[in-house]
Design goal:
The protein has about 250 residues and is of the alpha/beta class. It contains 8 helices and 10 strands.
Length: about 250
């Protein structure tokens, strides 16, 4: 009696003119990822954030979204790679970035600013600058990672960004193999993002009730396209991680 494998090959051979490899499973492509520098988040993402794709990190202020992005950029710049940070709200603190391990010599910081006369009358001014700068940098290539920081952008403004813009960013990121991280209070890239993470603050640690020495955050995976895991095992949808305060790092040094 023919084996099951022999029968499958016989059936495929008879159907190959109409249905090539009719019974063969479609091979799964494992995407390239880069570590976030946080073990708990890497486990949640099957190794890290995708290369050549858009990742959205959302959350309110002090939710850990910027700390997570800085940890990722620290790892990329330590490898000698050139990265960029497009700062729509001009909120990035360079000293804090350096304290997190980011090599500032490897980081291009694009600061978006309004003229004083248009600060209140044109809320889209900084957002337009940020989108244009991101477009130019992605098209130019040469950046291993790029953060589009829209954390200070009101959700009602960010949600008005055309879908065509995100589609263009996704295509450019894939072509240049750049990891594009979008930080915001709400998801803006929608279906153009390969990964969406929701951040939330849980608690702050203190020493003798006076000095903050760490912060604990929750990260929840909102969506992943083309998951890297091929084991079929069910992964947790959320994880927690702790960021050590600068005071604590200096004390241990």
């Amino acid at each position: 009696m023919p084996s099951a494998n022999a029968l499958r090959i016989q059936i495929e051979h008879s159907l190959e003119s109409r249905f090539p490899a009719a019974l063969s499973p479609v091979p799964r492509t494992i995407r390239e990822v880069a570590s976030t520098g946080i073990q708990e988040v890497d486990r949640l993402l099957d190794g890290g954030l995708p290369v050549g794709a858009i990742s959205e990190i959302t959350g309110l202020e002090s939710s850990g979204r910027t700390s997570l992005a800085l940890a990722f950029m620290a790892g990329r710049t330590r490898e000698g790679l050139v990265c960029a940070w497009v700062d729509a709200g001009d909120c990035l603190d360079a000293e804090s970035a350096a304290a997190c391990g980011v090599r500032l010599k490897q980081l291009l910081w694009v600061r978006c600013r309004n003229a004083e006369s248009t600060l209140k009358s044109k809320p889209w001014s900084r957002l337009d600058q940020a989108l244009q700068a991101t477009d130019l940098l992605l098209q130019a290539g040469g950046f291993a990672a790029l953060v589009l920081d829209l954390g200070s952008t009101a959700p009602e403004h960010g949600c008005r960004i055309p879908l065509a813009t995100w589609f263009r960013f996704r295509q450019a990121a894939d072509r240049t193999r750049c990891s594009l991280l979008v930080l915001g209070q709400a998801p803006f890239a929608q279906s153009s993002a390969a990964v969406m993470l929701e951040c939330a603050a849980m608690r702050a640690g203190n020493e003798a009730g006076t000095v903050l020495n760490g912060f604990t955050y929750e990260v929840r995976s909102g969506r992943q396209r083309q998951p890297a895991s091929i084991t079929g095992m069910r992964k947790p949808s959320a994880s927690t991680w702790t960021a050590t305060g600068q005071w604590e790092r200096e004390k241990k040094a």
